[in-house]
Amino acid sequence: MKEIDALQGFVGAGGCWNGTSFADIARTGRYVEGSWAPGPGEGEVRPPAAGSWTELVGRPGALALRAASAATRPGRREVLIDFLEMWAGTPFADPAYRFRLGRLAGTTSFTVRDRQGVSFGLYLPAARHTHYFEAVLPGGEVVPRPEEPLYAEDCHRGWGTPEQLSRLVELVRERGPVAWDGDAARALAEATGLSRPAAALVLAGNPGAGSHFVPYLDAHERSVFGFGAAELESARGELSMLNDDDRLALLADVLPEDPADLWEPDGLARVAERTAAAWTERHGTRPHPPWDTWRSAVALETRMPAAHLCHLFLDPANATLPPGFSLRLWPCPPEHRHLRTAWDVMGRYDADTVADAVFAGLPWAYADLPAGDPVRTAAPEVVRQLCKVLAGGDSPARLLHSGVIRGNRGSRRWDSLRDGTCDRVTARILADDLPPGRYESDPRACVPELVAEVAATLDLSEDAATLYLQLLLLPVPSDRKVRRWNAWTPTRHAKAAAELLAHDLVVEDRRPRAGRRLFLPGPWAHGKKPLPPMEAWKAPLIGARLSEDGSEVREFELLPGTLPELFAEVWRLVRAGAGPTA
């Protein structure tokens, strides 16, 4: 329904919303204030949308921010404007009323009213609890109810008086949405540790909501933000730690007292400042990875969003992924056992997910990030933390059984920890041998003497020898990555490629998901996401397992050594006549 599409991420009970829900809320408001009388054939007032709309009481600021944002779809903006206009005319926006929300122990639904106020009890079979809502009229003290609630809390009272809501609606209709301010979103990211796309979603009143709505963001919304679909999808995963209540609370009071300030210069920047303060108060701050590092992490496609992976590496001792989580075996650790429902622990990663992130993140940080990058520099510590947890007096058999490491993949992981592979990789990072900004995947940086030997032996330039070694060894030597690692322009890259073709060392082709046009001669192994396709010759050298016929990559996670070691080994094979052949 268009109603729940517009309100997604702030209210639940999606299947309970329909075309009359807004009118039903308005009618409930008239019932609360005593101005409603049933018409012919009408029964008693019942709270619409399973009562989920009551979570908005005192907190419509989030919807107002979304309604004013340039990144909101026009159709949804109209729905939001209609809702805010309706809400402004109800007691739910009137600060003279007092509202409370809670739960009841029983399963009976009811609606009662007297001169003091109104109370509702609504049993929700799917949630297996009875929702409780009471409205106390101005001057009232006690609301009638058949039973005492298990708990009931006063609703927040913040931005969103009838005057503020009506003024914002008027301004959006007169002036259109507030112009997007990318610098404000960037400032919010830097102040909180959120990624830039996640900060943009928050500042647009769309903080990671609506995982079951397709498409999550349309072309218009993406164009306003200036981010790609994969980046925004990772940002939504980053914000998955927030539930509906968190989102409403975060944005409840970030709008200006006078809504017109939104349209003034730096109006959105001031909203970003208030949002940063609200975020920090509720969730603290996190380390802020470099923008290029975050974008590189998105391409890893781990089960952990890019920002959480970076946070894990940058602050492994705390591992706030999200707040309250720490590296430990799962299921629920003792400090979480008091939580009321399964929803309260959603987003805490199990140990296997953390292990996946570390084993995918280590080779990425080592080989695909430059020397001096904070995530790369911190990689040895996160490996040490994981080893400490996995050691913990447990045997490999128990770890396999626990799900931290599973099956054949688990055996490879255990071997890499036990045989010293991870130790050698982390030692290379700690050695700090690379010049700042250089990459281990550039053999000129890590094995310059070997590049000189290859060039002399094959009568190649230094650039061509460098590219040849990268094609021989690296699992994903895409054109984009090679240029980044080597700091090459497309012209310089093309010149090196032409030299290798002239020496018949490579072949030119187009292959799915390869991202390059040069390949080693010989059989090719396809790979289904997230596994990379590659030349079959290099697969056993880099620790990849192929199908029986060698046509498909079935498993690949960790290189079996450091890049200097492996560059030397592939060159040794080529010199011994065991290199790739057609």
Task: State the secondary-structure class.
Answer: alpha+beta
Which radius of gyration do the C-alpha atoms yield? 29 Å
* Count of runs of 4 or more consecutive helical residues: 24
Strand content: 5-15%
Spatial ordering of strands, largest sheet? 2-3-4-1-5
Mind describing the biggest β-sheet?
5 strands, antiparallel
Helix content: 40-55%
Q: Can you walk through the features of this model?
A:
With 582 residues, this protein is an alpha+beta fold. It has three domains: 1-95 and 157-285, no CATH class; 291-431; 445-575, no CATH class. The protein is built from 24 helices and eleven strands. It has helices at residues 2-7, 21-33, 61-68, 74-88, 162-175, 182-192, 196-203, 219-225, 229-238, 244-250, 267-283, 291-298, 306-314, 351-368, 374-391, 396-402, 407-418, 421-431, 443-446, 448-458, 462-473, 479-486, 490-502, 563-575; strands at 98-104, 110-113, 117-124, 129-136, 151-154, 507-508, 518-519, 524-527, 534-535, 545-546, 552-555. The strands form three sheets. It has a five-stranded antiparallel β-sheet with strand order 2-3-4-1-5, with helices on one face. A four-stranded mixed β-sheet has the order 9-8-11-10, with no helix packed on it. Mean pLDDT is 86; it is low at 320-347 and 393-408.
